[in-house]
Amino acid sequence: MLGWLFFLLPVAALSGWIMARRHYKRRYRPQESSFSPDYFKGLNYLLNEQPDKAIDVFIGLLEVNSETVETHLALANLFRRRGESDRAIRIHQNLIARPSLSAQQRRQALVELGLDYMSAGVLDRAEVLFLELLQQPGTPPEAPKQLLRIYQQEKKWQQAIDMAKQIPANNKTNTRALIAQFYCELAESLLEKDQHQALNLLRSAHHYDADCVRASLLEGRILIKIGQYRKAIRVLQHVEKQNHYFLPEALPLLYTCFDNTNNLDDFKDWLESLLTRHHHLTSARLMLTRLVEQKQGTEAAQRFLYRQLHQHPSVEGLHQLIMLGEDNHQALIPLIKEVTTTLIHKGDRYTCKNCGFSGRTMHWLCPGCSQWATIRPIEIHLSALEKLLEPSR
Fold first, then answer.
1. How many angstroms separate the CA atoms of 159 and 156, rounded?
2. What distance in Å separates the CA atoms of residue 5 and residue 47, rounded to the nearest whole number?
3. Is the pLDDT of residue 303 over 60?
4. Which of 18, 170, 212, 238 is buried most, with the most CB atoms less than 10 Å from its CB?
5. In this UniProt entry, which residues form the Cytoplasmic topological domain(s) (predicted)?
């Protein structure tokens, strides 16, 4: 009750102020009361714990005219921020029903009503309102933005693409990068049905965002599936220029391509050159270890990885070294193997550079901040051991 009292008393005061202002402007006779009886009725409802009736009275007191439209909007926005979307909807509907509104005021009220529906989760009604606003002259910029939000939530990717194209790119919203992600979503839905069309969609993704790593990885997978390994190699190696942090996702695919073209020696040369450019890329170091083992045997792979770990220690590298030598030191190896296995499975594998969200699976749309393509793979280095070894709470 106290919460409603503190919330609605300012509304009551505002209503009284408006009526007093009208009194002085119209120069009522001194003996006449400047307050309507309804004002005291509203206060009575409020004090008797009947906030719904109090709201109706105070809304009625705020006569809709050019001077009070902003007051109505502010009151409704307060309700929406408090999670009282149904009350905000009532106020905005009451406002829109008044014929005295100007075209601009009506557009603003419709936008706010659409936001109320969004807050209440009634997306279909919000969509209808914002689509109506799109057909009107002087479309408010909020309409296509909210429609874009709706289509993303409903996974209507083609509609999301069409709407994003109507929003000018700026420093806050890179719409071209968003459009690329939407094309990737469409392509993923066609991976098993129509690979040719999926490739066309990925070309559109690259057109809108040349640095879209997701499109390159998807294209590489499709090209591998249809046996175009050399073309897949070119696409996947380009990931380094797009964003080298995603190379751990591309390397297994590249191994498949080079292996199927009987060209693992070239892959080894490329990995070695890659490590000269990105010294701490553990995934490349482990892939080289795999190639050394295939070519020269387990002992050579152990020696190679042992030397590498002295320069660039990592949990994954330590784990792989143990796996290579698990036939030796039978008493010690199971314990160390258990520790490193726990670390690898317990540690987060991906993190968002925007909000810091981390998890064990890849998300192209961050669950933490709802931004596209901000999550990237991470590797567990020995500096993180202390944190990972802490018991779960």
1. 6
2. 8
3. yes
4. 212
5. 21-393
Determine if the pTM surpasses 0.70. Answer: yes
Rounded Cα distance, 110 and 104, in Å: 10
Buried b (16+ CB within 10 A) or exposed e, 255-293: bbbbeeeebeeebbebbeebbeeeeebbbbbbbbbbbbb
Q: Mind listing the pLDDT tens digit for each residue in 143-195?
A: 999 999 999 999 999 999 999 998 876 656 689 999 999 999 999 999 989 99
**209 Cβ contact list (under 8 Å, min separation 6):** 176, 177, 179, 180, 215
* CA 242, chain centre distance (Å): 20
- For residue 388, with 0-12 CB atoms within 10 Å meaning exposed, 13-18 middle and 19 or more buried, which class applies? middle
Q: Phi, psi (5° rounding) for residue 267?
A: -60, -40
User: Among residues 110, 106, 184, which one has the least CA distance to residue 143?
Assistant: 110
d(CA 332, CA 321): 13
State the Cα–Cα distance between residues 217 and 128, nearest whole angstrom.
37
Amino acid identity for residue 90 in this structure: R
89 SS3 class:
helix
pLDDT tens-digit readout, 330-364: 544 664 666 567 666 666 788 999 898 988 888 99
Query: Would you tell me how many other CB atoms lie within 10 Å of the CB of residue 83?
Result: 11
Q: Is 369 annotated as a binding residue?
A: yes
What contacts 112, CB < 8 A, 6 or more positions away? 73, 76, 77, 88, 92
What's CA 336's distance to the chain center, in Å? Answer: 38
Residue 257 annotated in ligand binding: no
How many CB atoms are closer than 10 A to CB 303?
13
Instruction: Kindly report the number of other CB atoms within 10 A of residue 299's CB atom.
Output: 11
352's enclosing H/E stretch is: strand 350-352
